[in-house]
């Protein structure tokens, strides 16, 4: 893509951000229903919305009947009462965090918290949590990166590096930070995948670079507000995974089924067949992407996940599918109880993989090895599964944790 085109796309996105700050644009394509507490009933909307500069107003949750109103009201709570209070409300409002709309709302709660803390990113990150798949962290980082004075990699990296440098933060916060950086880099560069990946490559550790790339590739799949990445092809659902550097392939393939599924009409069998045919060294990652999508699309229902992961059995990748689903469930609910239910209904030969995935996510919520082992032991009495849970945790942590 030519430099002029990159600048044009970035300027268009920044103009859109200004419009969000100045005008009360309604979000389309989502219908709200009420049964006891209000719950969002999701229709297609960008999973990672572009959040403009948050401006508090007098909007209250009790007045709301549409998505934009709920997001503004939750942002107001975050700004005035703190993000923890707003995230707790979102958790209740959006079906215990299971509704994808919760992730979108959490973006707004994060943007509002950044205003509350006068742009102090570390303080804002520490004040929230990973409710609804870390949307809070994404919202903070996407806004923070827009202060970069240039879209050139060196300038963006200078802004990005200090944002996630505090190793005293819990691993889940650190991961939300570097993953949110990836989303923010795509927005700041006008969805320019090579530039965003270049900036990720300039971060200090492999763990940071890997998490950042995950955010980049996830944002690359978004078509928020009519903007579509140039790094997608209508005739190749695996692209750009087959074309990026080897260092970036892992994270690309860990997101790839979110592209494959709509390409094959949401056919799980065809998706599994496609995963089996990708580059040999990254077949495992494709089936793990399959498992994550199984979890999210089933609203994290254990029986449905077990049934759909069985589709991968002929390819000998059911463990990858179940592992990733358990990771997704644990991260979404910030505990291992729901994922343990999954481990209880999957085939006996993949239960250890299930506890491994559970432990990979659960470990990020703790700061010490002792606490992580205690969490695993609280979920199962079987020594082999405790060991799998602990091993998964070790594999998922930054080197300094």
Along the chain, the helix and strand elements come as HEEHHHHHHHHHHHHHHHHHHH
Q: How many β strands by DSSP?
A: 2
Low-confidence stretches: 1-48
Distance between the termini: 39 Å
Radius of gyration: 20 Å
What number of domains?
Answer: 2
The secondary-structure class comes to mainly alpha
**Number of DSSP helical runs:** 20
Q: How much beta, percentage-wise?
A: under 5%
- The residue-averaged pLDDT reads 84
Describe the biggest sheet? 2 strands, antiparallel
What is the topology, as strand order, of the major beta sheet? 1-2
Percent helix range: 55-70%
Q: Give the CA-based shape.
A: globular
From the structure above, extract its key features:
401 residues; mainly alpha; 2 domains; two-stranded antiparallel sheet; 20 helices; 2 strands; 61% helix; globular; disordered N terminus
Overview of the molecule:
- There is one protein chain.
- With 401 residues, the protein is mainly alpha-helical.
- It has two domains: 3-220, no CATH class; 233-395.
- It is built from 20 helices and two strands.
- A hairpin with a 1-residue loop joins β1 and β2 (37-41).
- α14 runs antiparallel to α15 and α14 (283-297) crosses α16 (318-333).
Quick rundown:
This protein has 401 residues and is mainly α. It is 61% helix and 2% strand.
Give the topology.
Layout: H1 3-22, E1 31-35, E2 37-41, H2 67-81, H3 83-93, H4 100-116, H5 121-127, H6 131-144, H7 153-163, H8 171-188, H9 193-200, H10 206-220, H11 246-253, H12 257-263, H13 268-276, H14 283-297, H15 302-309, H16 318-333, H17 337-345, H18 351-362, H19 369-379, H20 383-395
């Amino acid at each position: 893509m030519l430099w002029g085109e990159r600048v044009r796309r970035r300027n268009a996105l920044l103009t859109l951000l200004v419009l969000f700050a100045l005008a009360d644009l309604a979000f389309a394509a989502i219908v709200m229903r009420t049964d006891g507490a209000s719950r969002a009933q999701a229709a297609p909307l960008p999973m990672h919305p572009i959040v403009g500069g948050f401006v508090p107003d007098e909007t209250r949750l009790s007045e709301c009947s549409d998505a934009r109103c709920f997001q503004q009201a939750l942002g107001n709570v975050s700004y005035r009462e703190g993000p923890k209070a707003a995230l707790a409300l979102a958790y209740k409002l959006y079906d215990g965090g299971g509704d994808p709309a919760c992730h979108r709302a959490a973006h707004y709660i994060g943007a509002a918290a950044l205003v509350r803390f006068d742009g102090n990113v570390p303080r804002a990150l520490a004040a929230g949590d990973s409710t609804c798949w870390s949307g809070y962290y994404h919202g903070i980082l996407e806004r923070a990166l827009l202060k970069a004075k240039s879209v050139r990699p060196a300038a963006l990296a200078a802004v990005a590096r200090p944002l996630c440098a505090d190793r005293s933060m819990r691993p889940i916060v650190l991961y939300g930070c570097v993953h949110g950086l990836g989303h923010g880099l795509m927005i700041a560069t006008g969805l320019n995948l090579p530039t965003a990946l270049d900036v990720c490559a300039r971060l200090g550790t492999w763990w940071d670079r890997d998490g950042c790339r995950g955010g980049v590739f996830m944002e690359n799949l978004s078509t928020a507000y009519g903007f579509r990445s140039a790094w997608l092809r209508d005739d190749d659902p695996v692209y750009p995974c087959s074309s990026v550097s080897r260092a970036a392939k892992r994270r690309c393939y860990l997101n790839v089924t979110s592209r494959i599924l709509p390409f094959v009409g949401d056919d799980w069998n065809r998706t599994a067949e496609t995963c089996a045919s990708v580059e040999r060294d990254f077949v495992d990652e494709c089936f793990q992407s399959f498992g994550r999508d199984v979890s999210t699309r089933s609203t994290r229902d254990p029986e449905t996940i077990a049934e759909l992961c069985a589709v991968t059995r002929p390819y000998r990748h059911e463990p990858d599918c179940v592992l990733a689903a358990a990771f997704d469930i644990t991260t979404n609910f910030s505990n291992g109880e729901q994922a343990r239910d999954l481990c209880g209904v999957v085939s006996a030969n993949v239960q250890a993989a299930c506890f491994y995935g559970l432990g990979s996510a659960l470990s990020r919520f703790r700061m010490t090895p002792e606490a992580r082992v205690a969490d695993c032991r609280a979920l199962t009495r079987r020594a082999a599964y405790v060991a799998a849970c602990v091993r998964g945790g070790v594999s998922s942590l930054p080197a300094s944790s």
